[in-house]
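Subject: two folds for Thursday's group meeting

Dear M.,

Sorry for the delay on this. The cluster queue was jammed most of the week, so I only got both jobs back this morning. I'm pasting them in the order they finished. Each block is the input sequence followed by the predicted structure tokens. Could you check whether the formatting survives your parser before we put anything on slides? The first protein is the one we discussed after the seminar.
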Amino acid sequence: MSTVEKLPHAVQANPPLDNFINMSQARIRAGFRSRGGKKRCVRQLFEGMKRGDSAMVKAVFHDQAIMQTIVNTKTGEVKLVQGPVAGFVTAVGKPHTDVWDERISFGQVLVDGQMASVWTPYQFFLGDKFSHCGVNSFQLFRSAEGWKIIFSWIRAGKTTVSDQSGGWPSR
């Protein structure tokens, strides 16, 4: 009698069931990686900023990414400013006196297949000193390399955070 025949029926090998369980577990693991990838991409951007690591920042952007900022000017005018991602990446990597510490929270994360929208209210600090707050809106694309930022839209310029907003910028 072989070893398998001595085991109770419940623990004997069942290839079709084993394959089904293995495939299901793989799908579940892939789903978790997929859900976490978008936030991980955005977190890496801000961790790279904090470290002054331009390679870390560049890695999260798609080659054709666009960055735009809604700016409140000193005269009260609201402008849309578009800047090159390469310029931002270079600025992150240049030595600067204070740490660029953009503290984010995740608002909404919306997903449909290969695209995602990630909304992150933030407070920006130069070193330990509060500078301003606002909201980032990222559009992401899931490429063969993983989630990449294809569009970054920032509303910046608030210098106070409403206590009632739970850390979200006042409107």
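Second protein, same layout:
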Amino acid sequence: MARREGTGRGPQSASITVAMLLMRLFLGGELLRSGITKWSWLGTETLHTTLTAWTTGDTPAAYPTYLSFLTTYILPHAPMYTYLVVFGEIIVGAMLILGLATRLAALPALLMSINFLLATWNKGYEWQLINESFIVLELGVLIAGAGRYCGIDSTLAKKHPSLPLW
């Protein structure tokens, strides 16, 4: 049985630790970078303009059944969702980098990636591939509790082993 703390002996345990660490750092770094890049969106109509472009035209970018969700619930409240996206990416990215409540952080990351996938469905293979890749990595981080591998969760799991956040 593999040790979840990543402290076992042998090359397999060390390889798993490095793989979990790299997955977590990559996802966290990309989310943090993306959120910081979107900082200039705060107080602007950028998200609304982007989503309008994705939901209109002869071939909208959004997945057909997702269009009504975007136009009914997201677009009318785009200023609020701008803050949720920007701060969500920054906070979740930082939590993943630190390995802090990693499973909890992986959930909003997963939801954001699913939403981005559906919103950009018809933009082409490249858009689908990046979002699908992020979804797979986020599922891996969520299932494995990747914060236990060289993260703050490792320490917290020792103090509170029954909590599922680690």
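Two things I noticed about the second structure. The chain has one domain: 24-159. The chain is about 65% helix and 0% strand.

Cheers,
T.
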